[in-house]
């Protein structure tokens, strides 16, 4: 098992921070200009209150048949239930958490007993058990937004694991 890294080793300052009272159209312009798919939303005290993503904006457009009567505010569209990290979180645990659903990979009941047995190889079960998780994770400490980590940051930090080994 490789040496563990923490979120603090790869987190970076957010490129864009939005506020709940920002107009959704203005927020979209900022996301597009920054070439980002999501941005954290903080209150006046810097506390994370949500994340606004391209998906949230597309969903709003769909809901209004692609003809919104008036532009909403970020607070109306943002995701409030957000997966947050701390600087001390382990990167390998994060990679595992965003890649697989352990209940699909190792289906067990409440007593820890296997509920189904599979002859499918582990790698195939892992691929079948993919779950959707966000691409961008806010890093919070004592309620304050202190950074961001993306999937790209994560794979970049783990890139060295693919190094060529001498035979």
Automatic annotation (TrEMBL):
The organism's taxonomic lineage, starting at the top: Bacteria, Pseudomonadati, Pseudomonadota, Gammaproteobacteria, Alteromonadales
Descriptive protein name: CBS domain-containing protein
Taxonomic superkingdom: Bacteria
Xref: InterPro entries: CBS_dom, CBS_dom_sf, Diverse_CBS-Domain
Listed SMART domains: CBS
Keyword annotations of the record: CBS domain
Coiled coil: none
Pfam family, one: CBS
Residues covered by the CBS domain: 11-69
